[in-house]
Design goal:
Helix content of chain B: over 70%
Oligomer: heterodimer
Distance between the termini of chain A: 84 Å
Number of domains of chain A: 2
Shape of chain A: elongated
Radius of gyration of chain A: 27 Å
Order of helices and strands of chain B: HHHHHHHHHEEEEHHHH
Number of helices of chain B: 13
CATH superfamily of the largest domain in chain A: SGNH hydrolase
Helix content of chain A: 55-70%
Distance between the termini of chain B: 31 Å
Structural class of chain A: alpha/beta
Radius of gyration of chain B: 22 Å
Strand order of the largest sheet of chain B: 1-4
Number of strands of chain A: 5
Chain lengths: 271, 329
């Protein structure tokens, strides 16, 4: 009987202490949530986020790859989901001369040059770009073709006039984006993926599309030649002769084979 | 008073003798290592793809969620949830704070967050559900009521003993979780900052109230909220145990209510009057973490009021029924 007395006493004391602790926690939590205090200190400090002050990482002799840009960078249309970025990393890894680390794929479906410029202001994105020494950039197609959506949703195919109209401003923003990338990471190799004509299999659009894209690529080429440690990897010819074989079912994005061919080009340019 | 304490003591000893509390501890001691191991496998796998740099991982999570926002196949409510998630992760990243710093304390926080609405209430049911009904099934209720004590005192002593165990269960869930997961992840992490006070306006997150709370304070607040939920669940289960003759039926009724609650919170955002049901209000810790409420118009104050009302009504019913009812059978 005595042992039960002790059990009771310890239980009573422990549960009283627990209840006290939990009641304090409850009161504190409820107060914080029902009457939140505005955080004045943080609102002022928002401008200089701690993350932006981190220095770029030092070179350790490995490839550290980051992809950024539109759905092509993301790999939309690739049934394995790898895209050219991961495929290029895998090919580099196979060739085996240096260690390969694929850091991040920052590609976002439907991204335009304008959205890319906003994205480049994000501290997290800047941090990732600083960590890399190979930056794969794919951008511009959505400015010129409105995401290829016009091809599927409306009967009206994107016409050459709209493409011509969008080109100068978009091209300027590409230049800005390249400058931004350079200033974020002065040492990394920047590889810009030239555009191809996704409408090669549509007779009426073929020639007009070709002209517009050639003009875009030429302008991009000139901008890239001005910058340091940048190249344009052309993809135009890859999809010219037999678009059906290398484009996915949406007639806009490459399929797995198409991405593989782009990846091979990137690797050749790096070695 | 002394007499009443003796009655509570008697009830506490009965609960301990039935070994229910040991079962709770045993279940925790079995479940926590399983979850810890699963979590460890997951973080090892993540480390393989992102290395040791959590910033890359968080940035990738942000991008992945942004991509899913543009997909037409994703339902609108999920998009709101993801937009909120993106903004919160962005805040962590901008401030260079790891939202998932591995460690025993972080694991405990996440484990309790996930078990607050279902698992911990279930633990409480193991003790609460047969408190009165077992006396009736065993026939001991006549002995209990034959003593020269008023009936409401008998019931109050049972209720007091139950509430003592609710506190013990919540605290021991934390203790067991911390002690066991620490073996896997280490025992550190008490002072890691956790951001609280994300105020949600639709899919926008208002950052003016965000505070960096040390993790131990977060755990304290979380435990308090879990405790409140636990008390309300205990009161409801207690009422059911008074109303229903068989212990099995009493457990099933409460289980069904709890499980329907976890299903409803996942789907019922369109049925807005569901917010007055107690079982959709059990996720109090979600408010602390800054997650959107399952139904529009729910706030912490609202949920506390709803739960308190249900708790009060069930205490009232328990006492009325217990003092008035014939117990000849």
């Amino acid at each position: 009987m005595n042992s039960w007395k002790w059990t009771w006493r310890t239980t009573a004391v422990l549960s009283a202490l627990s209840a006290l602790l939990l009641a304090v926690g409850f009161g504190y939590g409820a107060r914080e949530l029902i009457f939140p205090r505005p955080n004045l200190v943080n609102a002022d400090a928002a401008a200089d986020a701690p993350l932006t002050e981190r220095a770029p990482s030092t070179d350790d002799g490995s490839y550290r790859i980051v992809a950024i840009g539109d759905s092509l960078a993301k790999g939309t249309g690739d049934t394995t989901g790898q895209g050219f970025a991961r495929r290029a990393a895998a090919l580099l890894d196979q060739s085996g001369d240096r260690e390969v680390r694929f850091l991040n794929n920052l590609g976002i479906n439907g991204m335009t040059t304008q959205e890319l410029l906003t994205e480049l202001d994000e501290p997290g994105v800047r941090y990732v770009l600083k960590e890399a020494n190979v930056i794969l950039l794919s951008i511009g197609a959505n400015d010129l073709f409105q995401g290829g959506a016009a091809l599927q949703t409306s009967a009206e195919a994107p016409d050459a006039n709209a493409l011509e109209a969008a080109l100068p401003a978009a091209s300027e923003r590409l230049g800005e984006a390249l400058d931004q990338l350079r200033s974020i990471n002065p040492a990394a190799r920047i590889i810009y993926l030239g555009l191809y004509n996704p409408f090669g299999d549509i007779e009426s659009l073929r020639d007009e599309g070709d002209l517009g894209i050639t003009e875009w690529n030429a302008k991009a080429s000139a901008q890239i030649a001005e910058g340091e440690n940048m190249v344009l990897t052309p993809t135009f010819d890859l999809f010219e002769r037999d678009p059906g074989a290398y484009l996915s079912s949406d007639h806009f994005h490459p399929n797995s084979a198409g991405y593989e061919r782009i990846a091979q080009r990137i690797v050749q340019g790096l070695q | 008073m002394k007499r009443f304490l003796a009655m509570v003591q008697n009830e506490v000893v009965k609960i301990i003798k039935k070994k229910r509390f040991y079962i709770v501890l045993l279940i925790l001691a079995i479940m926590v290592p399983i979850f810890s191991y699963a979590q460890m496998r997951q973080s090892l796998e993540r480390q393989e793809s992102y290395g040791t740099d959590w910033r890359l991982e968080v940035q990738q999570a942000i991008i992945d969620n942004q991509n899913s926002l543009s997909s037409d196949r994703v339902p609108q409510e999920w998009k709101v949830y993801r937009q909120i998630y993106i903004q919160q992760m962005q805040y962590y990243l901008d401030n260079d704070v790891n939202p998932n710093e591995p460690g025993g304390v972080t694991f405990t926080r996440e484990f309790i967050d996930n078990s607050a609405a279902l698992f911990i209430p279930l633990m409480i049911l193991t003790i609460a559900s047969d408190l009165v009904s077992s006396e009736r099934t065993g026939g001991t209720i006549k002995m209990l009521l034959a003593r020269p004590v008023r009936r409401w005192k008998v019931l109050l002593s049972k209720l007091t003993a139950l509430l003592m165990f609710v506190s013990l269960i919540v605290v021991s869930a934390y203790a067991v979780c911390y002690l066991i997961s620490g073996v896997f992840f280490g025992y550190s992490g008490w002072s890691i900052p956790i951001f609280t006070g994300f105020v949600l306006n639709g899919s926008d997150v208002d950052l003016t109230y965000v505070q960096a709370t040390p993790q131990w304070q977060y755990l304290l607040m979380q435990a308090g909220l879990v405790w409140f939920v636990g008390i309300v669940v205990a009161l409801l289960a207690f009422m059911v145990s008074v109303l229903v003759r068989s212990t099995a039926a009493s457990i099933v009724v409460m289980m069904a209510a709890l499980i329907s609650g976890s299903i409803l919170t996942n789907m019922a955002s369109a049925w807005s009057s569901a917010k007055y049901l107690f079982m959709v209000n059990l996720g109090l810790t979600e408010y602390l973490a800054g997650n959107p409420a399952p139904i529009d118009g729910m706030t912490l104050g609202f949920s506390l009021a709803v739960l308190a009302a249900w708790g009060a009504v069930s205490v009232f019913i328990s006492f009325i029924v217990f003092t008035k009812r014939d117990v000849l059978t």
